[in-house]
Write a structure and sequence with these properties.
Largest sheet: 12 strands, mixed
CATH architecture of the largest domain: 3-Layer(aba) Sandwich
Structural class: alpha/beta
Number of helices: 16
Strand content: 5-15%
Radius of gyration: 22 Å
Length: 406
C-alpha cells in the first residue's frame, strides 16, 4: 500500500526517537490490559459486553479482509463494531492527529509498516500491547511484542519459459541474491528485476533497511563469497555489505507501481523475467494456459523451488499486520477481545484463511493448499523487526534516494 512521502527531517526525528526511547520494542500496558491478559477469551468477551452495552466499538485498519473477521465477531458475541478502512498514509495521519490532540478515535487498530508503528505509535505510547492468554500456547514469542496478527510476504518469482517460449523448462534460475546485484559481466547475472519503488511503498523500504542489520549483513556476506568465490572487502562507499547490495540492486532493477500488475506482467513476459511481489497476488491471475498468458503455471518461486537448499541470502521479505489497543480506548476490554479473536484460529480463517500469501501468527490455523507454513517462510525470508527498522530507517531511506531511477 502506498504511503505519502514524509519530509526527511521528520523521518530522521522519528528514527532517533524510536532508537532513544526506553519504550523501543514497546510492551507498555495499562491497568485494563494487564487485567485482560489474565482472562480467557470467554471471560474477556463477558467483560467486554458489560463494558460496551448497546454502544459501538471503533476499529481502524488497513485490510479489506478485517471486515469479515469483525462481522463474525459481532455475530458470535453481539458486540457492535464499526470498522474504518484506510490506506496506510491516511490511517497513520488520522490516528496521529487524534492521539496528539488526546481525542478518542479508535479502540483497536490493525496496521502494518513496522517503522511507522514504532516511531509514530509505540514510542509516544499512543498504542499499547495486549497479548491474549491463549497466545502463550499458539503464537511465537517474537510475534507478541508488538502483537502481530497476520504476516504477508513478498517473494522473488520468475517466468519459467525457455527462450523460445515453447516449454516450461527454465529451472534453478535464481539461486543467489547477488545475481540481482553486481554487474552484467557476472556469471548468472539477472538484469532488470521488477521492484516497487521503496519511497512509495514503505514496507519495501523497511525490507531494504533490514538488510543493513547484522543478521542480514552476515547472510549477504556468506552469499557474496558463494557467488564470487572470494571474501567481501569493505568499501568506503558503503557502511556495510547490506548498503552495497541495496545500491547495486536498485541500479539494476526496474520500478513497478503495482505488485498485482507486476505479477501478471511477469506471468505474461518472456522466460527469465524476475519480480519481487506479494505472493498473495497470484490469486488474481487468470487460468489461461500458454506462453504470454496470465497463468500461475508460468511462474516459479525460487524459495519453493529450491526447498531446503534455499535462495542464498534470502528469498524475499515478510512483514506483519499488528493488532494493537489504543491507549485512550473507550472500550479497552472490547479492544482486547477483538485482538484475541483476530489472532485466533476462527478469527483468521474467517477473514484471510482461504488465500495464499496470508499467514496467521497463530500456528493452529489452516493455510491455503498452494502455500507453506509461516515458520517455513520465516526461515527463508527477511523478517521485519520494527525496532531495528525504526533505528536505521532514516539513514537507509536517505541512501536509497540516491539510487532510485538510476
Amino acid at each position: 500500500m502506498k504511503m505519502k512521502k514524509f519530509v526527511p527531517v521528520l523521518l530522521a526525528a522519528c528514527s532517533m526517537l524510536a532508537a532513544c526511547s526506553p519504550n523501543s520494542g514497546n510492551n507498555n500496558k495499562n491497568e485494563a490490559i494487564s487485567d485482560a491478559e489474565k482472562l480467557s477469551y470467554a471471560e474477556l468477551v463477558a467483560k467486554a459486553k458489560e463494558e460496551v452495552g448497546n454502544n459501538t466499538v471503533s476499529v481502524y485498519g488497513n485490510s479489506s479482509q478485517l471486515e469479515k473477521a469483525i462481522l463474525a465477531f459481532t455475530e458470535e458475541t453481539g458486540i457492535k463494531v464499526n470498522n474504518t478502512k484506510e490506506g496506510d498514509a491516511d490511517l497513520y495521519n488520522h490516528l496521529s492527529t487524534a492521539f496528539q490532540s488526546k481525542s478518542y478515535i479508535a479502540d483497536m487498530v490493525l496496521l502494518q509498516d513496522g517503522n511507522m508503528l514504532q516511531s509514530e505509535m509505540l514510542a509516544p505510547n499512543y498504542l499499547l500491547n495486549f497479548v491474549p492468554k491463549e497466545a502463550a500456547q499458539n503464537v511465537a514469542a517474537d510475534d507478541t511484542v508488538p502483537m502481530a496478527a497476520v504476516y504477508l510476504n513478498k517473494v522473488f518469482m520468475y517466468n519459467n519459459y525457455n527462450s523460445e517460449g515453447t516449454e516450461h523448462s527454465l529451472t534453478n534460475y535464481l539461486t543467489n541474491v547477488w545475481q540481482l546485484a553486481g554487474s552484467a559481466s557476472d556469471e548468472g547475472h539477472i538484469a532488470n528485476p521488477s521492484f516497487k519503488t521503496p519511497t512509495t511503498e514503505n514496507v519495501n523500504m523497511n525490507f531494504l533497511t533490514m538488510l543493513t542489520s547484522k543478521e542480514w549483513v552476515d547472510k549477504l556476506t556468506v552469499a557474496y563469497k558463494n557467488f564470487y568465490h572470494k571474501d567481501y572487502v569493505a568499501e568506503s562507499d558503503y557502511k556495510n555489505i547490506g548498503y552495497k547490495w541495496i545500491a547495486e540492486f536498485l541500479k539494476n532493477s526496474q520500478a513497478h507501481s503495482s505488485d498485482g500488475t507486476a505479477c501478471k506482467d511477469t506471468a505474461k513476459a518472456k522466460g527469465g523475467t524476475v519480480a519481487l511481489v506479494n505472493y498473495n497476488k497470484i490469486k488474481d491471475l487468470k487460468d489461461e494456459e500458454g506462453y504470454g498468458k496470465e497463468n500461475v503455471a508460468n511462474l516459479t518461486f525460487p524459495s519453493i523451488e529450491l526447498g531446503d537448499n534455499k535462495v542464498d541470502g534470502f528469498g524475499g521479505f515478510c512483514y506483519k499486520m499488528y493488532s494493537m489497543v489504543a491507549a485512550n480506548a473507550k472500550y479497552p476490554y472490547a479492544a482486547c477481545a477483538l485482538v484475541s479473536y483476530i489472532t485466533s484460529k476462527a478469527g483468521f480463517e474467517n477473514a484471510w484463511g482461504s488465500k495464499a500469501g496470508y499467514y496467521s501468527t497463530n500456528h493452529t490455523t489452516t493455510i491455503a493448499s498452494n502455500d507453506k507454513e509461516l515458520a517455513w517462510w520465516k526461515d527463508r525470508l527477511v523478517v521485519e523487526d520494527p525496532t531495528i527498522v525504526a533505528q536505521n530507517y532514516g539513514d537507509v531511506s536517505k541512501f536509497v534516494k540516491q539510487y532510485e531511477g538510476k
